[in-house]
Amino acid sequence: LTLCLHGCMDQNPLYHALQTEQARRSGAGLPPVLSLIDSNFHANGFIPPRQPFDLAFSDYLTTRTYAPDSKGLREAREAVYRFFCNGGPVSPGIGADLSRNCGLNPDHILLTASSSAAYSLLFGCFAQAGDNVLLPLPAYPLFEDLCSYADLEPRFYPLDPKRGWQPDTDVLEVLCDEHTRFVVLISPNNPTGSVMNEAAIINIAEICRQNHTAIISDEVFSEFLYTSHELPRAMALCPDVPVYTLNGISKLFASPDLKLGWIAITGPDAEERTSILEMREDTYLNTNSFSQFLLPRLFASLAMQEFVRLMRDRCALNRDVFARVFKLDKNNSSLPAAGIHLVLPLVRSRFPDDEKAAIHLLQKTGLYVHPGYLYGLDDHPSFVLSILKEVTAFASGIETLHSFLRSP
Ligand SMILES: Cc1ncc(COP(=O)(O)O)c(C=O)c1O
User: Fold this and answer.
1) Which residues line ligand 1 (CB under 6 A)?
2) Cβ(335)–Cβ(193) under 8 Å?
3) Which atom of ligand 1 is nearest to the CA of 189?
């Protein structure tokens, strides 16, 4: 999204308006633009406690020896395995019994440089030019590009706002054909904050079974759950379907700078599919050795667990602030159940064009939000916000936003 907005800044009216407004405010001695869409953990004050990093770095330097494993360091893969079995600081685990049932084990976990890199690895290994990938809509504007780099056709199945953004599996079934290599589930979803329910996952698994298609289950926001301690997981619900479960430390430990993600490979032929991925990984050995060494220590650190809970709690608090200001019941299905974003629908008769509305908001109030169209919400004029911000600033921004939307 950084490039999507910034790369083509000459053509992007919102980005242009942002530059102009920032300059105007600075020149006039006005308070700076307040971004309600900044999802950079560090910029929002979430820099992980340094102790586990310091200790790990010192240990790493003491024992430093380059001994790459193309799947990733065994201790790190075992730590990821325990994370899936026992759960993370916030997310539930699937339990050792279920992990055995779906064949999960440390040998079927592969470390990657990031979740984005994991997508490219999967596309490169198991799809050919002209194949297609089913993606949820709305979604973070990353997956279309990843498809295009692999010459794959992205096909979008809608998430239905009237049903808490659950997928329309009837449309998904129509889109799925013999050239569909993957159905991507993003749960928790960015930007809707929805968690896919068990029935939808089971339905999708059946469609995949019939079409010999695999599931990619993107769970990068697994630690940001607000309404339930359940995270229905494709790997546990559909042990007889090939599933690739993606996650990493980018969101989980607010450490996108340390470049570490993973793929858990479950379902039939997991061994063979893992070997194919491993061969490709062996060509590059892209995954940072220090980050792999660090990973078990991050999972074991009480300070890190506390930090993850703090991030989650702040987002939950901002979610409550939003509900209070917009007079929504805390159980309202338009509020995010998870994740670090929320979608605010606009009244179409007043704001038919969400990009123009975002520019108007920026110029009138100094608030910066994303228009929904950037996430594929073309038929639903809306704003997309991040709920990571410091609570007082977030509350003040939300009050201003509420007044703007209500003013004649
Ligand atoms: C749903 C989702 N999946 C994957 C990614 C990419 O994560 P990573 O930093 O691990 O590449 C993002 C980035 O924001 C995302 O929103």
Assistant:
1) 114-116, 140, 142, 186, 190, 218, 220, 248, 250, 256, 261
2) yes
3) 1
Burial class (CB within 10 angstroms; exposed 0-12, middle 13-18, buried 19+) of 329: exposed
Q: Inter-axis angle of helices 391-406 and 302-325, to 10 degrees?
A: 20
Mutate to test the pocket of ligand 1, among 142, 189, 388 (most ligand atoms within 8 A of CB): 142
pLDDT tens for each residue of 347-380: 999 999 999 999 999 999 999 999 999 999 998 9
Whole-model pTM? 0.96
What is the pLDDT at residue 330? 84
Cα torsion 169, 171, 172, 173 to 10°: value is: 90
Q: Contact 91/114 with Cβ under 8 angstroms?
A: no
Angle between helices 115-126 and 270-284 (to 10 degrees): 110
Taken in order 10, 139, 357, 402, the sign of the CA dihedral is negative
